Amino acid sequence: MEKLIRQMLINIGENPDRDGLLDTPTRVSKMYKEIFRGYDPSQRPKISLFKNGSDGITYDQMITDCGDFYSYCEHHMVPFFGKYWFGYIPDASGNIIGLSKVARVMDYYSAKLQIQERLVQEVVEDLWNELSKDAVRPIGMGLVLKGEHLCKTMRGVKKKGEMTTIKLKGAFLDNASVRQEFLNNIK
Protein backbone atom coordinates (compact mmCIF):
# COMPACT_ATOMS: atom_id res chain seq x y z
CA MET A 1 0.00 0.00 0.00
CA GLU A 2 2.86 2.39 0.81
CA LYS A 3 4.26 1.99 -2.71
CA LEU A 4 0.86 2.81 -4.18
CA ILE A 5 0.51 5.92 -2.02
CA ARG A 6 4.00 7.03 -2.98
CA GLN A 7 3.09 6.57 -6.67
CA MET A 8 -0.15 8.49 -6.14
CA LEU A 9 1.85 11.42 -4.74
CA ILE A 10 4.02 11.38 -7.86
CA ASN A 11 0.94 11.13 -10.11
CA ILE A 12 -0.67 14.24 -8.58
CA GLY A 13 2.56 16.22 -9.08
CA GLU A 14 4.11 15.94 -5.61
CA ASN A 15 7.63 14.99 -4.62
CA PRO A 16 7.34 12.10 -2.14
CA ASP A 17 10.96 12.67 -1.11
CA ARG A 18 10.44 16.16 0.31
CA ASP A 19 10.59 16.51 4.11
CA GLY A 20 6.87 16.94 4.70
CA LEU A 21 5.96 13.84 2.69
CA LEU A 22 8.69 11.37 3.65
CA ASP A 23 6.51 9.45 6.13
CA THR A 24 3.17 10.14 4.43
CA PRO A 25 2.88 6.74 2.69
CA THR A 26 3.34 4.96 6.05
CA ARG A 27 0.93 7.27 7.87
CA VAL A 28 -1.75 6.93 5.18
CA SER A 29 -1.37 3.14 5.12
CA LYS A 30 -1.86 2.96 8.91
CA MET A 31 -4.82 5.35 8.69
CA TYR A 32 -6.53 3.25 6.00
CA LYS A 33 -6.20 0.11 8.13
CA GLU A 34 -7.92 1.97 10.97
CA ILE A 35 -10.70 3.71 9.07
CA PHE A 36 -11.52 0.68 6.91
CA ARG A 37 -11.69 -1.79 9.80
CA GLY A 38 -15.26 -2.61 8.76
CA TYR A 39 -13.85 -5.16 6.29
CA ASP A 40 -12.37 -7.18 9.17
CA PRO A 41 -15.06 -9.50 10.60
CA SER A 42 -12.99 -9.95 13.76
CA GLN A 43 -13.58 -6.27 14.56
CA ARG A 44 -17.38 -6.55 14.44
CA PRO A 45 -18.54 -5.54 17.91
CA LYS A 46 -19.97 -8.09 20.27
CA ILE A 47 -23.53 -7.01 20.93
CA SER A 48 -24.63 -7.25 24.55
CA LEU A 49 -28.27 -8.16 25.03
CA PHE A 50 -30.20 -8.18 28.28
CA LYS A 51 -33.40 -10.09 28.88
CA ASN A 52 -36.17 -7.54 29.27
CA GLY A 53 -37.34 -7.64 32.88
CA SER A 54 -34.27 -9.46 34.22
CA ASP A 55 -33.45 -6.50 36.45
CA GLY A 56 -37.01 -6.26 37.80
CA ILE A 57 -38.20 -3.68 35.29
CA THR A 58 -39.95 -4.63 32.06
CA TYR A 59 -39.72 -1.90 29.45
CA ASP A 60 -41.96 -1.83 26.39
CA GLN A 61 -41.82 1.81 25.30
CA MET A 62 -39.64 3.55 22.72
CA ILE A 63 -35.91 3.84 23.37
CA THR A 64 -33.92 6.32 21.25
CA ASP A 65 -30.24 7.12 20.84
CA CYS A 66 -28.30 9.54 18.66
CA GLY A 67 -24.70 10.10 17.69
CA ASP A 68 -22.28 10.90 14.92
CA PHE A 69 -21.06 8.74 12.07
CA TYR A 70 -18.11 8.98 9.68
CA SER A 71 -17.74 6.95 6.51
CA TYR A 72 -16.18 7.01 3.04
CA CYS A 73 -18.04 7.32 -0.25
CA GLU A 74 -17.47 4.25 -2.39
CA HIS A 75 -17.75 6.28 -5.59
CA HIS A 76 -15.08 8.93 -4.89
CA MET A 77 -13.31 7.67 -1.76
CA VAL A 78 -13.88 10.90 0.17
CA PRO A 79 -15.62 11.17 3.54
CA PHE A 80 -19.28 11.56 4.28
CA PHE A 81 -20.40 12.13 7.83
CA GLY A 82 -23.26 13.32 9.94
CA LYS A 83 -25.71 12.42 12.68
CA TYR A 84 -27.78 9.32 13.28
CA TRP A 85 -30.93 8.75 15.31
CA PHE A 86 -31.81 5.20 16.31
CA GLY A 87 -34.94 3.99 18.03
CA TYR A 88 -36.64 0.75 18.91
CA ILE A 89 -39.41 -0.68 21.03
CA PRO A 90 -38.42 -3.89 22.80
CA ASP A 91 -40.90 -6.71 23.21
CA ALA A 92 -41.77 -7.18 26.89
CA SER A 93 -40.57 -10.80 26.69
CA GLY A 94 -37.62 -10.08 24.39
CA ASN A 95 -34.23 -8.45 24.72
CA ILE A 96 -32.86 -4.98 25.30
CA ILE A 97 -29.60 -3.97 23.67
CA GLY A 98 -26.68 -2.42 25.51
CA LEU A 99 -26.96 1.18 24.34
CA SER A 100 -23.25 1.69 23.59
CA LYS A 101 -23.55 -1.18 21.12
CA VAL A 102 -25.68 0.90 18.75
CA ALA A 103 -22.78 3.35 18.34
CA ARG A 104 -20.30 0.49 17.95
CA VAL A 105 -22.38 -1.19 15.24
CA MET A 106 -22.76 2.16 13.46
CA ASP A 107 -18.98 2.67 13.60
CA TYR A 108 -18.29 -0.83 12.30
CA TYR A 109 -20.52 -0.57 9.23
CA SER A 110 -19.34 3.00 8.59
CA ALA A 111 -15.71 1.82 8.50
CA LYS A 112 -15.67 0.74 4.87
CA LEU A 113 -16.44 2.23 1.49
CA GLN A 114 -20.16 2.90 1.66
CA ILE A 115 -23.22 4.54 0.26
CA GLN A 116 -25.57 6.01 2.83
CA GLU A 117 -28.51 3.94 1.57
CA ARG A 118 -26.64 0.69 2.28
CA LEU A 119 -25.27 1.93 5.60
CA VAL A 120 -28.72 2.63 7.08
CA GLN A 121 -29.94 -0.82 5.98
CA GLU A 122 -26.91 -2.77 7.24
CA VAL A 123 -27.09 -1.25 10.71
CA VAL A 124 -30.84 -1.82 11.12
CA GLU A 125 -30.72 -5.38 9.76
CA ASP A 126 -27.84 -6.31 12.07
CA LEU A 127 -29.45 -4.83 15.19
CA TRP A 128 -32.87 -6.28 14.29
CA ASN A 129 -31.38 -9.74 13.81
CA GLU A 130 -29.43 -9.53 17.08
CA LEU A 131 -32.50 -8.47 19.04
CA SER A 132 -34.54 -11.26 17.39
CA LYS A 133 -32.18 -14.10 18.33
CA ASP A 134 -34.52 -15.59 20.92
CA ALA A 135 -37.32 -15.70 18.30
CA VAL A 136 -38.93 -12.64 19.93
CA ARG A 137 -38.60 -9.65 17.65
CA PRO A 138 -38.65 -6.03 18.77
CA ILE A 139 -41.99 -4.31 18.26
CA GLY A 140 -40.32 -1.88 15.87
CA MET A 141 -37.07 -0.19 14.94
CA GLY A 142 -35.90 2.82 12.98
CA LEU A 143 -32.74 4.60 11.97
CA VAL A 144 -32.34 8.02 10.39
CA LEU A 145 -29.02 9.20 8.93
CA LYS A 146 -28.35 12.80 7.90
CA GLY A 147 -25.03 13.07 6.13
CA GLU A 148 -22.91 15.65 4.38
CA HIS A 149 -21.05 14.15 1.43
CA LEU A 150 -17.73 15.74 0.53
CA CYS A 151 -18.01 14.27 -2.98
CA LYS A 152 -20.83 16.82 -3.43
CA THR A 153 -19.43 19.63 -1.27
CA MET A 154 -15.78 19.82 -2.35
CA ARG A 155 -15.96 18.52 -5.94
CA GLY A 156 -18.49 18.25 -8.74
CA VAL A 157 -21.44 20.53 -7.99
CA LYS A 158 -19.62 22.06 -4.95
CA LYS A 159 -22.81 22.62 -2.98
CA LYS A 160 -23.33 22.07 0.72
CA GLY A 161 -26.32 20.02 1.77
CA GLU A 162 -27.43 16.96 3.69
CA MET A 163 -28.76 13.66 2.50
CA THR A 164 -31.29 11.89 4.71
CA THR A 165 -31.90 8.14 4.63
CA ILE A 166 -34.39 6.28 6.78
CA LYS A 167 -34.87 2.57 7.48
CA LEU A 168 -37.95 1.47 9.43
CA LYS A 169 -39.11 -1.98 10.53
CA GLY A 170 -42.09 -3.37 12.41
CA ALA A 171 -44.34 -0.77 14.08
CA PHE A 172 -42.05 2.07 12.98
CA LEU A 173 -42.98 1.19 9.40
CA ASP A 174 -46.54 -0.09 9.82
CA ASN A 175 -47.96 2.24 12.49
CA ALA A 176 -48.19 5.94 11.58
CA SER A 177 -48.41 7.13 15.20
CA VAL A 178 -45.32 5.13 16.26
CA ARG A 179 -43.43 6.42 13.22
CA GLN A 180 -44.48 9.99 14.07
CA GLU A 181 -43.43 9.60 17.72
CA PHE A 182 -39.98 8.44 16.57
CA LEU A 183 -39.60 11.26 14.05
CA ASN A 184 -40.75 13.81 16.66
CA ASN A 185 -38.13 12.50 19.09
CA ILE A 186 -35.28 13.11 16.68
CA LYS A 187 -36.01 16.77 15.93
Distance between the termini: 43 Å
Structural class: alpha+beta
Number of helical runs? Answer: 7
**What share of residues are in beta strands?**
25-35%
* Helix/strand order: HHEEEEHEHEHEHH
Low-confidence stretches: none
In the CATH hierarchy, what is the architecture of the largest domain at level 2?
A: 2-Layer Sandwich
CATH names the topology of the largest domain as GTP Cyclohydrolase I, domain 2
Supply the CATH superfamily name of the largest domain. GTP cyclohydrolase I, C-terminal domain/NADPH-dependent 7-cyano-7-deazaguanine reductase, N-terminal domain
What spatial order of strands do you see in the largest sheet? 5-2-3-6-7
Q: How many β strands by DSSP?
A: 7
Our count of domains comes out at 2
Radius of gyration: 20 Å
CATH class descriptor name of the largest domain: Alpha Beta
Helix share bin: 25-40%
- Form type: elongated
Roughly what is the average pLDDT, rounded to an integer?
Answer: 96
The largest pleated sheet is described as: 5 strands, mixed
Characterize the structure shown.
- This protein is α+β, with helices and mostly antiparallel strands and 187 residues long.
- The protein has two domains: 2-35, GTP Cyclohydrolase I, Chain A, domain 1 (Orthogonal Bundle), CATH 1.10.286; 49-185, GTP cyclohydrolase I, C-terminal domain/NADPH-dependent 7-cyano-7-deazaguanine reductase, N-terminal domain (GTP Cyclohydrolase I, domain 2, 2-Layer Sandwich).
- Helices cover 36% and strands 26% of the residues.
- The chain has helices at 2-11, 24-35, 100-110, 116-131, 150-153, 171-174, 176-185, and strands at residues 49-51, 63-73, 79-89, 95-97, 113-114, 140-149, 163-170.
- The strands form two sheets. Strands 5-2-3-6-7 form a five-stranded mixed beta sheet, sandwiched between helices. The protein has a two-stranded antiparallel sheet with strand order 1-4.
- β2 and β3 form a beta hairpin.
- α1 (2-11) packs across α2 (24-35) and α3 (100-110) packs across α4 (116-131).
- The longest helix has 16 residues, at 116-131.
- The mean pLDDT is 96.
